[in-house]
């Protein structure tokens, strides 16, 4: 099973950079994961709720540890999100285009995490599945 298949086979997801603004990719990714029937939590320290779901400021404050994390944040934020994900025990990380950070990717791989950071977009893959 390849890296993307392993990510998509997870049961619980989180989206770092989820947003209430429907034109933003963080919102689109969050809604796409929900629409595909996946249990998904929004992560955004500046929001209390996103699309009717309680938003969480960080992975450590989620009620469960997500197996998979999609990241749609600026690279400098990605580093912090990945450090939190490593500490929490996340198994799969997908850095969406523009969120990639070489240092964060290397740290996650050294921690044994399945990392997707090749410019692939989860929205494209989820659209193909539906």
Automatic annotation (TrEMBL):
SUPFAM superfamilies: NAD(P)-binding Rossmann-fold domains (SSF51735). InterPro entries: CoA-bd, NAD(P)-bd_dom_sf. Pfam families: CoA_binding_2. Coiled coil: none annotated. Residues 7-99 form the CoA-binding domain. It comes from the Bacteria. This is CoA binding domain protein. The lineage of its organism: Bacteria, Pseudomonadati, Planctomycetota, Planctomycetia, Pirellulales.
